[in-house]
């Protein structure tokens, strides 16, 4: 889908598995002015009714694109601006200095981002802290937490 606007942020879901999460992330992207990028393989079809249902009627306002792999994403976006969200982060998501056009990258629901992507992101790996009783946050919740902090710092959010 072509961008109807210049996005404030880019949100990348690396090989997402659950359509409900992706639909919810799409809704959050509309809310914060981000473009959603999906990196294949996907655990669902992009025409999945669960995806559309979770995104509700907001999906028609979403700027989104599917790419075949990480290399294809790198041809479209400056990956040196990518913040990688992982429980193995170098610092907390509040420690980052976000800028307009930054890329927020999130991994698969089952096992996160692969080590080969994280190895190339020294100093750009971020974690969202949780209590020890919680292994991780839901993907859509993580995108909302990070997206709104980035938007707060950018200061150019939607009204």
What do we call the CATH homologous superfamily?
SPOUT methyltransferase, trefoil knot domain
What count of domains describes the coordinates?
1
Alpha-beta classification? alpha/beta
Q: Count of helices?
A: 5
How would you describe the shape? Answer: globular
Strand tally is 7
How would you write the strand order of the largest sheet? 3-2-1-6-4-7-5
Biggest beta sheet summary: 7 strands, parallel
- Helical proportion, percent range: 25-40%
Give the oligomeric state. Answer: single chain
- Cα Rg: 14 Å
Instruction: Give me the CATH architecture, please.
Output: 3-Layer(aba) Sandwich
Rounded mean pLDDT score: 90
Instruction: Assign the CATH class.
Output: Alpha Beta
Distance between the termini: 24 Å
> What proportion of the residues form beta strands (DSSP E)?
15-25%
The ordered string of helix (H) and strand (E) elements is: EHEHEHEEEHEH
Residue stretches low in confidence (pLDDT < 50, at least 5 long) are none
CATH topology value: Alpha/beta knot
């Amino acid at each position: 889908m072509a961008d109807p606007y210049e996005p404030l942020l880019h949100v990348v879901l690396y090989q997402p598995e659950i359509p409900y999460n992706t639909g919810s992330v799409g809704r959050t992207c509309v809310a914060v002015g981000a473009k959603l990028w999906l990196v294949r393989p996907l655990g669902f079809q992009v025409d999945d009714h669960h995806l559309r249902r979770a995104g509700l009627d907001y999906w028609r306002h979403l700027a989104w694109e599917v790419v075949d792999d990480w290399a294809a994403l790198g041809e479209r976006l400056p990956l040196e601006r990518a913040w990688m969200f992982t429980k193995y982060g170098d610092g907390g998501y509040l420690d980052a200095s976000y800028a307009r056009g930054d890329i927020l990258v999130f991994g698969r629901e089952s096992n996160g981002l692969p080590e080969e992507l994280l190895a190339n992101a020294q100093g750009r790996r971020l974690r969202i802290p949780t209590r020890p009783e919680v292994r991780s946050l839901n993907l859509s919740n993580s995108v909302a937490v990070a997206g709104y902090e980035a938007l707060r710092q950018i200061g150019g959010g939607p009204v």
